[in-house]
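3.2 Worked example (two chains)
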Amino acid sequence: MADNKIICESQEVLYQKAVKKMNADRVIVQHAYKIENYQIAAGMFDEVGDFEDAAELAARCRKLAAQTREEEKEEKYRNASRRIEGDPTEDIWKKAEAEFASLGDYKDSAQQTLKCREKLDGINRKYRRKRNVLAGSALLLASLVVAGSASGFFKYMLGWGMVQGGMYNQALEILETKSGFLSADSLADQCRDELIRESRVGDEVYFGRYKWKVLDREDDVITAITSAVSEDHDFYSVAFDEQGGSSWETSSLRSWLNTTIYEEAFSERERGAILPVVTETTQNEQYGTQEKGGCEDHLTLLSAQQAEDYADILKSLGLNYWLRTPGHEDGTEAFVSAGRHQAMLYGYPTDSQELSVRAVIRIDCAGLK
């Protein structure tokens, strides 16, 4: 009888220790320690044998360990996903790659790992090109100086080298001064295309004969608005409708933008990358006027609501410019005030040429070939 009593007491003591071990996860933060704790507790319950509900608790500990593993994977996945948001550095891409790779087939970790590797390969290629081009440019410069030649050919070759090294902004500044010289125009187009492909919200890019500010980006499609409008610009001081109407669909401005400007300001190659914009109905909530949507255009205008949505980006733009939201009565159209940086819903007479135009366009970056 004494031996049986000792065995029972030993089982109970071990059982209580196992319960304490199982419940210790409440004060443990790290997932790895929690998993280890559950596994140890499960083993202790196995040693207890058939005492009380030890078998059930052992199974519960193993289930909790499995759940914690999933929680650990999800946390790692979220951390890695957050790392690659925005514009991460090369080191961050490397850390994210390692985290995704450690997750194996969890969710789309394999695809994310590949994405990180491709990004790192691109960064490495760009660095190598820049190093090679800078070295080549330095050698070329030294050769030209020795030869006493600081000619247009030197500038062209320097621009060419910068294109090869991915230094597109710097190359464009040089190549634009050499228009018509050898393949300078083609190289300048290549720079503009690459800058558009790499652009982010808020960046300024060149497309056609105008400069644009990126308002939005979704995958390879960017939405941009004309940014640099001065007195000698096509869009400076233009009436919304020469006949005084207040409908975007029938306005002289819409017709001009989508015929003359579309045909003359963009090359055939560039027109192939312009995506149609289908306008939505726009409401002037302050005065109860409305412009029915449904127009499909190559170039359009912002609505008053869009001007509000993009206010942070648009505040850097000057001049008063038209919107496609009707004003307080027929013959008026809302506009953005350069002084207040907001939509003026009362509107302005549409046949006036005192306001300017900031056209909006959608560009398929993948279509730039």
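3.2.1 Second chain
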Amino acid sequence: MVFIGVSLLLVGIFLLISNNLVNDLAEQERSRMQIWANATRELTRENSDADVDFLLSIIEDNHNIPVLLVDADGEILLHRNFRLPESVDSLAVLDISERNMKFLKDKLSSLTNSRNKIEIVIDDNTTQYLYYEDSTLLKQLAYFPYIQLVVVLIFVAIAYTALMSVKRAEQNKVWVGLSKETAHQLGTPISSLMAWTQILPTMGVDSEIVADIDKDVQRLSTIADRFSKIGSMPDKDEVELVDAVKEALAYMQSRIPKRVKLTISEQPAAQQARVMLCKPLFAWVMENLTKNAVDAMDGEGKLDITINVSTRMALILVSDTGKGIARKNFKNVFTPGFTTKKRGWGLGLTLVKRIIEEYHGGRIYVKDSEIGRGTTFSIELPLILN
């Protein structure tokens, strides 16, 4: 924000300086046109004793400012430096073509109400008017500040994007480092626990108790394996999507409250759908969405998982009857740290989005939600086409 603020301040300073330059140049051009008008007046006076050659040199010296000299009735007497539709060498309007005359009259009409007008009083009975356009240089300089503004804004946008990319890269490194370190730290106690599950039966411990302990140890091993896969592209296998979803939810079905009714349904077209999945990470996605849904329903409601396919994508809809999400937060729910819970890090859906989009080339988003009525998340995964 400081970088953007300083950049905008510099842009403002550049615009102010450029605007002052444009105004100074405009005043200089008006002064030149005033001298040109004075020279024209002296040349048209009958008793003028001015140096004719000098006055003509002043008039001829104007090569870049388009001018029109008209009489009191609005008839064009002289034109100079306009790019006419048909070329003409003469300064006077003698023998000018109809097309060129229309062009000059249009120019005169556009200049009538501008500030670029100088009155030339020849005598008591004769008055002429000099109209002029800004020179090409002045026009270019007038546009330059805005071009400069666009360039600076583009530079700021690029720099901001680069800074944010660096920031995200650093966050990713921390994320990956923590994930792999967690997996590493869990490895040793898990290995020890696995060994104990082999020893406990020989010590007379009930086999059912050992079996339950073994399930939890296997669960810890699965979690450690998931963490170890974060940060590098995981290996994926070709699987049937329906089976993968059911397998991923098998662990949760026995652990969600009995007052939550979980249903898994597939459309006929989805029964043979095959996708490339890293099953441990996909299971993590489904578990996260399921836990969030159960929390949103306060442990009571309906959770529907629907599997379907479109032309090229497999579709998984996760719908609950929970508290719902405000529309303004549809995208924010995937932002690291965003959470509506009293407890939690706000990283679950961020992780889900990373797994689906970065590791599986799919897409996840809030398809629909209504406060007090529930939410539907949509997962899209590329189909394996025959």
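3.3 Remarks
The longest strand covers residues 301-309.
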